[in-house]
Design a protein that fits this description.
Layout (H helix, E strand, L loop, with lengths): L6 H24 L3 H23 L3 H9 L8 E6 L10 H18 L7 E9 L2 E9 L5 H9 L6 E5 L3 E9 L2
Parallel strand pairs: 1-2
Antiparallel strand pairs: 2-3, 3-5, 4-5
Helix pairs in contact: 1-2, 3-4, 4-5
């Protein structure tokens, strides 16, 4: 997870992802599934819009962490969404990215590998800071690891749900 990514590696992973996406579109078109191809293109456009919003935030370490997350060896798939187009307010990027890295490590250790584990992060910029929602669905086998991590967290995290199949967290980071 602490791997240093050089530009060639980033471009290699990105090119691989885009080739996979193009093959899916081409395959659907070859099978005359025009609606499926269009739907997939729409998904890609929405994902690219969220990627753009995230990249334009004043959170370079956090953005980098999320952008490369699915290229690393996590046992969950990450999706993220940036709500609204408010101008980004400055928050503590180091604190946020360090907490998120640690959370990813904890989650990797607490969930069942080789299952459909999904983590969704919703980022809601506000005039006085940014609100974050972390929603996990999958198989949690070590709830106590997550509970321990959250009890020692530097952030004031509200646990909305923690069960064997779901985890919902919310926290607010004020602008600096």
């Amino acid at each position: 997870m602490d791997k240093e990514w050089d530009i060639v590696e980033v471009l290699r992973h990105s090119r691989h992802d885009w080739l996979n996406r193009l093959q899916l579109i081409k395959g659907n078109l070859d099978l005359n599934r025009i609606d499926r191809a269009k739907a997939y293109i729409n998904e890609i456009v929405i994902e690219a819009q969220h990627e753009s919003k995230l990249s334009n935030f004043r959170l370079p370490k956090f953005a980098s962490l999320l952008l490369k997350s699915n290229w690393e060896k996590h046992v969950f798939l990450l999706e993220y969404e940036v709500l609204n187009d408010l101008e980004a307010v400055e928050i503590n990027d180091d604190l946020l990215s360090n907490w998120t890295k640690s959370f990813f490590i904890c989650l990797d250790q607490a969930i069942e590998a080789f299952q459909e584990n999904h983590l969704s992060i919703t980022i809601q910029p506000q005039s006085d800071g940014v609100r974050f929602f972390f929603d996990f669905s999958g198989i949690i086998i070590k709830k106590e690891l997550i509970e321990q991590f959250l009890s020692t967290s530097e952030l004031d995290v509200m646990v909305k749900e923690l069960s064997e199949s779901e985890l919902e967290l919310e926290f607010f980071m004020p602008k600096v």
